[in-house]
């Protein structure tokens, strides 16, 4: 029971296949429902990064 076994989830992942051991995830939408409406979002301006000034210590 390893990577070559197509009956196990590990074997399904290795072979990049789906089946009873590794079901393909499908989004569940109510039958007959309209397409989901996109929510309005307010875009925020990205925060400005403050760059610290470098100070050079003078040897004296």
Give a quick precis of the structure.
The protein has 60 residues and is mostly loops. It has one helix at 9-15.
- What's the N-to-C terminus distance? 73 Å
Order of helices and strands: H
Number of helices: 1
The largest sheet is: none
Whole-angstrom Rg:
27 Å
Give an account of the 3D structure:
With 60 residues, the protein is low in regular secondary structure. It has 1 helix and no strands.
Features of this protein?
single chain; 12% helix; flat; 60 residues; little secondary structure
Give the helices and strands, then pairings.
Blueprint: H1 9-15
